[in-house]
Amino acid sequence: MQIYGNTFLVVGASGVLGGAITRLLTAKGARVLGTATSNESANRIPTEAAVRLLLDLENPASIRVLSDYLVQGENIQGVILAAGRVGFGLASETSHVDAARITRINYLGQAQLVAELKPLLTRSQPALVAAITGVVAEKSFPSMAAYCASKQALAGWLASVALEWRKDGVQFLEARPGHTETGLASRPMFGTAPAFPVGMSAEHVAQAIVAGIEADAKVLASSDF
To answer: What are the extents of the domains in the chain?
Structure first.
C-alpha cells in the first residue's frame, strides 16, 4: 500500500511503538490521526500527528463516539492497531476481572473499533487494517495465559474478518514481533514480568511494520523481525 498522501489512524500513538510508527508514516508523507486513552497520555502522541483523539478501549461508548466521528467526517485509508496491555501470572492465580480487562483492551475493544469503521474503510480504497499481535500469536508462554489468549483471540478474529471483507477491498496485515523494548513489561496491568532478555528496539519493529505495509504483506511472522 502506498503511504505517501494517505491518511492513517494509529491506535495507541501515545505508546512507544505507536509513536515510532506515527513518525515513520509522517516522514513518508502520510497524514496521521493518533489516539491516546486520556488527555494526559495524549501529550505523548508525537507532534507529527495531524490530529490527536481520545479512545478508551475498555469503554464501548468511547469506541462508538470515535468510530461515529471518523465515519462521518474522515477519509482514512489505513487503521493501525498499536495499542495493548500486558499481564503476568499463573492462570490459576489470575482473577476473572484481570482476564476480562486485558481481553477487552487487547481483543474486544479493537475488534469493535475495526468492525464499526467498516463503512469508512470500504469507501476508502485501497484500505488496510494492520494489527500488532506479537509472537504470542504463534506460541504461548507460561505465566502469560490471559495475555496470550487475548492476543490469540485478536489474531483469530482478524483472520476471519480478512476473509469476510476481501470482496470489499480491505487488506489485513498481522505483525508478530517478539519482545520489544517499549517499557510495557515494566508497567503490567497485573503481575510481575519475568526477566526478559534484551528485546528489539521499537524503531526496528516499526520500520519492519511500515515496510510490510508498503509491500502489501499479510503476515509478518516473528522471524521477519
So the answer is: 7-224
Decide: 14 and 45 in contact? Cβ < 8 Å: yes
Which residue in 87, 81, 3 sits closest to 35, CA to CA? 81
Sign of CA dihedral 64, 38, 102, 156: positive
Is the pLDDT at 143 greater than 90? The verdict is yes
Whole-Å CA distances, 188 to 11, 78, 93, 171: 19, 28, 15, 31
pLDDT of 194 higher than 90: no
Of the CA atoms within 13 Å of residue 149, those in its CB half-sphere come to 17
The C-alpha cell of 180 is what? 520489544
Question: What is the rounded distance in angstroms from the CA atom of residue 10 to the CA atom of residue 180?
Answer: 18
* Residue 15: half-sphere exposure toward Cβ, Cα within 13 Å: 24
Sign of the torsion formed by the C-alpha atoms of 185, 190, 194 and 195: positive
DSSP letter assigned to residue 91 = G
* Count of beta carbons in the 10 Å neighbourhood of residue 27: 11
First-residue to last-residue Cα distance in the chain: 20
User: For the residues 97-113, what does the mean pLDDT come to?
Assistant: 98
| Phi and psi torsions of 129, nearest 5° | -120, 120
What pairing do the DSSP bridges indicate for beta strands 51-54 and 31-36? parallel
Say whether pTM exceeds 0.85. Answer: yes
Query: Is the separation of the CB atoms in 84 and 185 below 8 Å?
Result: no
Letter for the amino acid at 211? Answer: A
Is the CATH code 3.30.450.20 the one for domain 7-224? no
